[in-house]
Amino acid sequence: MARDYAARCPVSPVRSTWLLAATVLLFARGIAAQKVRVEEELEAYPTESVELRCQFIDGGGRTKLTQVSWIWEPTDGQRDNIAVYHPMYGQSFPNTDFKDRVVFLHNSLENPSIRISNLRMSDAGRYTCEYATYPSGNEQGTTTLTMLAKPKNSAKVVTVQAGTKSVVVAQCEAADGKPAATIKWLASVGGNHSTSSTNGPDGTVTVRSEYRLVPTPTDNGREVTCIVNQRTQERPWDHAMKLSVEYPPSVSIEGYDNNWYVGRSDATLLCLANANPEPTTITWTAVSGPLPDTVVVDGNKLMVKKVDDAVNTTFICEVKNKHGSSKTQISTLVIEERRETTPGPSSGAVIGGILGVLAFIGIIIGTIFFIRKRQEDGEGPPKHKPPPPVKASSSTEMNLDDETTGALNGGAPPVLDDSAKYDNVNELTDHNLDPSNHEPPAANISRGESFVSPAMFV
């Protein structure tokens, strides 16, 4: 019903202006009525000091101040007086927790500001400066004190064994911070993290984060970084760690070159193991039985002092660590004479050859392109304007007298066209060079003469 009335009776612009003016007036009167001036919010750290300022503003000077008190209201507790000042009876500090840590900065009712020293996290809360006045009664102003705490950051790796299940491989913690910190991870391995927080009795928060993955031998030594962000830190805190993944050994034997000839003295085999932690034992054995007398073992190295038929066998290398053991074997073949080996081309020569071939191909492609370009330019239209064509004339027209020819040319001297001249020359040349043409040239016949030969009488 109220909505229908508002729809039928909209507020006029004049009425809106009066409402706005009334609101501003009430707000101004509220400010004027606020006679106790304090700071609304303050921030501080443990073990430091903070000053809570308070001042009574009396424009008319008609208010009589009787007493001032500072009342502390903790975040989750009851109100309690911590400091009282009376102009006749002096100072009083009723709360024993603040008694040795609170002092009045000025021995005055008009400015009863206090200082709290050796702050604790539990000191956070609302502090009210309250006046007992006459005749208006009590006047007060409240300051909210927020306690901040820098977190104690730490991070560590967790040594794990390679397996098929997701486990915690790194941990990061931001302890006793306020406000609570946020933890992020930067990692080059595939994994995920979980975060939890715990509230302390003094209002601080401890945040813990764990990074998890399914560890494999290739993850050992990979790097993960914990990043902590918190309001009290000038910049994010970060700590890089290398994962520690333990796994049983994997073994390989190197050094055999298929050229163990009789009498050779520098034949050597190396037993290489990939393990974490490092192998505890490395054992060399032979399939044929005990190691030959010409064989010397030094850790992972098996050396043959002189190759003979006794080392024509299969050698076995076994490696152990606390997570297990692994072994591999290699068969060595003794030959009578040394096998000459031809060294292959070096990598530098191979690379140089490839570059040379590429350069040669580039030269060929460039040459072909240049030739085709020249051909296209030669087949294009002529760059000069050719002379106009001239109608070929008969031999009888060529025998016209100069006067007739001049008349035909408008009285100018006769002009012989160059193209016609060159065409006649070419015709004569072709006629003279043709060996099949042995007929004498035809005689010139003037106009009016007959082309029929006269009769011959016998």
TrEMBL record:
Family: Belongs to the nectin family.
Predominant location category: other
InterPro entries given in the database record: CD80_C2-set, Ig-like_dom, Ig-like_dom_sf, Ig-like_fold, Ig_sub, Ig_V-set, Nectin/PVR
Protein name (database record): Nectin cell adhesion molecule 3
Spans traversing the lipid bilayer: 349-371
Presence of keyword Lipid biosynthesis: no
Name of encoding gene: pvrl2l
Cited Gene3D superfamilies: Immunoglobulins
Lineage: Eukaryota, Metazoa, Chordata, Craniata, Vertebrata
Region: Disordered, residue numbers: 376-458
Topology versus the membrane: Single-pass membrane protein
Pfam families: C2-set_2 (PF08205), V-set (PF07686)
SMART domains the UniProt entry points to: IG, IGv
